[in-house]
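Saturday, quiet lab. Running sequence design on the structure tokens for the scaffold JK sent over.
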């Protein structure tokens, strides 16, 4: 009976550990252009700035799902006061310091370019994502992951993979987000370059041609894919059961030997 119990516990452990991601769907981020699943997630807010009506950053959210190799983000801008501005394209640039040294221009660092087009359709805005390592593009995707202009044109979600940013679970990364619009990308000495270097984005912020989040410094995050609480509890319960069964067998053996 003891062996059977141990075998059953081992099988249950294997099922929990190898269950499909959909089994853990409760509370997971889903790429669908809806944003209820971002409620309560880690984020950083930025105060409103009257100079940046079209590209004024309000929040940056970040999260990861259990047992996935994706890093999810949601960018929210303040809703433009002018309804026509809600339809305009917004350009975001997320710099990722992959070796956590406080610099964003090292060879292994990544730049994620995000183009958000709220007026692409009546139901969802279009989001285009490109991941760069220097001049080499290491990832690209596109989807209806943004609010439409009719719904306010403020929020857009996207993801990158661990492989694309060249790191893995548990490694600390640093992040800085910039935002601007099409007009400012083609203005002055920057010549419409996109992506631009970290220093150029900083200069654009000084000229009020771009917004930055955070206003100073950077964000640190160590994404760690973990099992959801119920699965962790199940694993802990199985571990306790295995230990108890082992001790019971040991006591029976001692009793038999006596």
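Result came back. Writing it out in full:
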């Amino acid at each position: 009976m003891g062996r059977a119990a141990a075998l059953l516990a081992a099988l249950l452990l294997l099922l929990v550990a190898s269950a499909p991601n959909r089994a853990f769907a409760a509370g997971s981020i889903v790429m669908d252009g809806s944003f209820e699943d971002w409620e309560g997630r880690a984020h950083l807010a930025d105060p409103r700035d009257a100079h940046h009506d079209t590209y004024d950053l309000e929040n940056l959210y970040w999260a990861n799902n259990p047992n996935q190799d994706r890093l999810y983000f949601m960018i929210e801008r303040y809703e433009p006061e002018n309804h026509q501005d809600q339809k305009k394209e917004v350009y975001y640039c997320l710099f990722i310091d992959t070796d956590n040294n406080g610099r964003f221009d090292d060879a292994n660092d990544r730049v994620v370019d995000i183009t958000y087009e709220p007026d692409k359709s009546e139901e969802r805005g279009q989001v285009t994502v490109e991941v760069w390592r220097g001049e080499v593009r290491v990832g690209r995707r596109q989807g209806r992951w943004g609010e439409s202009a009719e719904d306010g044109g403020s929020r857009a979600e996207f993801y990158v993979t661990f492989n694309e940013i060249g790191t893995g679970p548990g490694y600390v990364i640093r992040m800085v987000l910039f935002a601007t619009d099409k007009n400012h990308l083609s203005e002055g000495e920057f010549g419409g370059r996109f992506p631009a270097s970290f220093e150029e984005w900083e200069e654009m912020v000084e000229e009020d041609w771009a917004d930055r989040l955070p206003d100073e410094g950077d964000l640190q995050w160590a994404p760690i894919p973990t099992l959801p609480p119920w699965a962790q509890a199940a694993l802990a319960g199985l571990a306790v059961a295995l230990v108890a069964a082992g001790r019971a067998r040991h006591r029976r053996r001692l009793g038999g030997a006596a």
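Notes for JK: DSSP finds five helices and eleven strands in the chain. Residues 29-227 form one domain. Ask whether to fix the surface positions before the next round.
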